């Protein structure tokens, strides 16, 4: 998978297959941004200093908590708030902030760059194609929902049936971003986020 500018000048990808993983997407973005650098250090309108939400995923929270379940749960309680995702109709966790992200410095450097949330990794502040945006959104939603599920499993006594249902999300307890897009798309279909005919257009 490679990212490129399409005929409309939008960021798009060439092709994916059944084996393509989320990690492949993130690597393709890094290569693209390396070849088409964005001047974040001199940006006057830093996306990290705006009032909009910074959505947090389970892998990011687990990484900054050194994979310690109690620390992860403390972090969720002290630093995050639940916010409704009205587009997908589920609750997600976002940083409890008014403006600047907790992790941005005056000079626009991210202090958790290597461990930053997946939505930050998937974000490119250039016009993006519809299919790139769909893939980005489905990956993000799967990992955002995984944090909600993991936190509930850490803090509440849930029925075996509910735990089984939560574990259908392929990102729950994932150690990283090695999940295949195929698994993300299967889960998205189960959740009603993606229809079969739309899925074909993503390959
Ligand atoms: S990614 Fe954010 S900080 Fe970097 S140039 Fe774009 S808007 Fe500015
Ligand atoms: S985590 Fe880092 S990249 Fe993401 S919004 Fe905060 S400062 Fe920006």
Characterize this entry briefly:
This protein is mostly helical. The chain has helices at residues 22-35, 58-64, 69-79, 118-122, 130-155, 160-166, 181-191, 196-202; strands spanning 3-5, 11-13, 80-85, 90-95. A hairpin with a 5-residue loop joins strand 1 and strand 2.
Question: Would you kindly provide a written description of the structure presented here, covering whatever features stand out?
Answer:
There is one protein chain. The protein is globular and about 50 Å long. The termini are close together. The model has no long low-confidence stretch (mean pLDDT 95). The chain has helices spanning 22-35, 58-64, 69-79, 118-122, 130-155, 160-166, 181-191, 196-202, and strands at residues 3-5, 11-13, 80-85, 90-95. α5 crosses α7 (181-191). It is mainly α. The strands form two sheets. A two-stranded antiparallel sheet has the order 1-2. Strands 3-4 form a two-stranded antiparallel ribbon. The site of one iron/sulfur cluster (SF4) has 10 residues, from loops.
């Amino acid at each position: 998978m490679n990212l490129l500018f399409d005929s409309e000048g939008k960021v798009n990808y060439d092709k994916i297959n059944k084996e393509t993983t989320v990690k492949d997407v993130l690597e393709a973005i890094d290569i693209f941004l390396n070849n088409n650098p964005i001047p974040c250090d001199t940006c006057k309108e830093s996306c990290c200093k705006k009032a909009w939400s910074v959505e947090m995923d389970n892998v990011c929270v687990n990484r900054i908590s050194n994979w310690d379940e109690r620390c992860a749960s403390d972090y969720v309680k002290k630093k995050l708030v639940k916010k409704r995702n009205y587009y997908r109709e589920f609750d997600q966790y976002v940083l409890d902030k008014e403006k600047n992200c907790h992790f941005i410095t005056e000079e626009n450097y991210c202090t958790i760059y290597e461990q930053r949330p997946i939505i930050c990794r998937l974000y490119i502040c250039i016009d993006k194609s519809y299919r790139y945006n769909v893939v980005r959104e489905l990956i993000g939603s799967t990992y955002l929902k995984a944090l909600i599920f993991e936190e509930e499993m850490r803090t509440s006594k849930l029925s075996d049936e509910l735990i089984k249902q939560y574990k259908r999300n392929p990102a729950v307890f994932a150690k990283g971003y090695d999940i295949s897009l195929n698994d993300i798309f299967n889960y998205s279909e189960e959740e009603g986020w993606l229809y079969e005919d739309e899925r074909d257009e993503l390959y």
